[in-house]
Amino acid sequence: MPLDYERFNRMVVDDSASEDEGVDPDVKLPGTDVGLLKAFIAVHEQRLDVDRQLRKAMRGTADVFECLPSLDQQRLERLASIAESYEDVCERILALEGVRKETSLQSSGHRIEMLQALLGAAKALFLTGDVSGAEDCCSRALAVGVLSSKSLAAAVQAGGRTVSASTLEVWLLRSKMQLRRGDSVAARAGALEARALARAMSD
Predict the structure, then answer these.
(1) What pLDDT sits at residue 6?
(2) pTM listed for this prediction
């Protein structure tokens, strides 16, 4: 579903924020709303291109939630490269606001792009066998806070179907990885969050 870019062409970045609060003073932001919008669209299109690369690399594999397949070295290297490309997208999103942390992003559009990029990176890393790296990407995606367990129905309505489905994927993927490393308590908590979100989506 195409994003409504006009909703995201204005951001609020606190000029008084310190470096400790996540603002990177060395990053130069686009100087106008038009510049911000063009930069955002470019990052969005870059992320979509990496999405296509991931889908191509995943052809012939089982569902990422079902198992960790045995892939040849060439495929593993390709997936690792795709994960790096997603991280590049993440860095570019942060640069749009001149911040260093996902949690410092102000624009809802930028947070949505970050969620999608981190989900893609998590899938790619999981398929390479880097479960720890994939789990970290999932945790970062959830920390962005596009959707939270509070007021889920309102959040789903505001976030839209695509964002809701992506958030659900993140919860499920992270729960699977937590279960793989033996943390059944955390995995169950994540599964319950996913269940609550799924119910909110169906209402």
Answers:
(1) 41
(2) 0.76
Per-residue pLDDT tens for 37-71? Answer: 889 999 999 999 999 999 998 876 656 655 555 67
pLDDT in tens, 161-187: 777 788 889 999 999 899 988 999 999
Q: Which domains does the chain have, with CATH numbers?
A: 25-202 (1.25.40)
DSSP annotation string for the chain: ----GGGGS-----TT--GGGTB-TTPPPPSSHHHHHHHHHHHHHHHHHHHHHHHHHHTTSPPTTT------HHHHHHHHHHHHHHHHHHHHHHHHHTBSSGGG---HHHHHHHHHHHHHHHHHHHHHT-HHHHHHHHHHHHHH-SS-STTHHHHHHHHHHHHHHHHHHHHHHHHHHHHHTT-HHHHHHHHHHHHHHHHHHH-
